[in-house]
Amino acid sequence: MSDSEAAGLRDRLVDAGVELVASEGAQALTLREIARRAGVSHGAPRRYFPTHVELLSAIARRGFAELGERATGVIADGTASPRAQVAALGRVYLEFALDNPGMYELMFRHDLLESGHLGLRDTSLPLFGVLVDLVGRARPDVDARPVAGALWANLHGIAQLWRWGSLQLATGADDFVPLLRSALDAHLGPEAAR
Description:
mainly alpha, 0% strand, elongated, single chain
C-alpha cells in the first residue's frame, strides 16, 4: 500500500469515527464499529492506530481543530475588548458543546485519552492558552491561569447541565446567554466596573 493510500485509509477511519461520535456518542467508538463504517476489516485500524487511544485521540483532534477554527473566527481581528473576546469565546464553546455533544464529551475525556505522546495536548492546550491570555488582559490584577480554569469549569458545567435540561428547569431560562453573562461577571467582575 502506498503512503497516499495509507493516509487515505487513516483519514477514512478518522472520518468514520467522527461520524460515529456525532450520531451515537463517545461510548459507540469501538475499533470494530469504526472499521465497519470505514468499510475495512476489523483488524485494519491497528495498522494505522496501534492502540484504541490513538484512534480516539485522532478523532478528538478533529473536534479541537473545529472548535479552534470557530474560536479564531470570533476573536480573529482582536479589536474587541478582552472581556468581549472572552464572551465570544465562551459563546462559541457553549454552542459547540451543545451542537456536538458526542465529540465534546470525547474531547474532554482525558481519562480516556490520557497519553502524553499522542499530540492531543498540542491541539487542546493552545485554546486554553488563548483563554488565559484574554483573562489576563481582562483581569491584570489576578493570576490568569486559575481564573481561566475556573471559568472554563463553569462553562463546562453550564454546557453539561444545559444539555441535561437541569439549568432550564432550575432557572426557567430558555437561552444560555444570561448564564454565560453571569459566569463572566463571577470570574471577570461586573462588566460596568471594567
